[in-house]
Amino acid sequence: MGLYGCPTIINNVETLSTVPAIILEGGEKYASRGTPKNGGTRLLCVAGHVNKPGIYEIPLGMNMKKFIYETPAASPTARNSRQ
């Protein structure tokens, strides 16, 4: 039963994408990917001047600056300067 005793439907892609991992690994292992207070993962879309634009799954609590500058796939690429 969902909120206020009514049926609840999940229509959010991010939530649905976590279901296989939770079923295969179990809730505790999935939750251990993030911080102790916020377990699990989050989808992050990276676009613009980066090496590999795309959608990345990162653990909750990951520092965004660290992800952008230290992950080879998402590191900003050098722009060609106009002369």
Can you give me a brief rundown of this structure?
The chain is α+β, with helices and mostly antiparallel strands and 83 residues long.
Question: Low-confidence parts, pLDDT < 50 over ≥5 residues?
Answer: none
Structural class: alpha+beta
Radius of gyration: 17 Å
| Number of DSSP-assigned strands | 2
Tell me the strand order in the biggest sheet: 1-2
Mean pLDDT: 81
N-to-C terminal Cα separation, in Å? 64 Å
Structure commentary:
This protein has helices spanning 13-25, 27-31, 64-70, and strands spanning 41-46, 54-59. A hairpin with a 7-residue loop joins strand 1 and strand 2. A two-stranded antiparallel ribbon has the order 1-2. The protein contains three helices and two strands, in the order H-H-E-E-H. It has 83 residues and is an alpha+beta fold. The protein starts with 12 loop residues before the first helix and ends in a 13-residue tail after the last helix.
Keywords:
two-stranded antiparallel sheet; 3 helices; alpha+beta; elongated; 2 strands; 83 residues
Could you give the topology of this structure?
Layout (H helix, E strand, L loop, with lengths): L12 H13 L1 H5 L9 E6 L7 E6 L4 H7 L13
Antiparallel strand pairs: 1-2
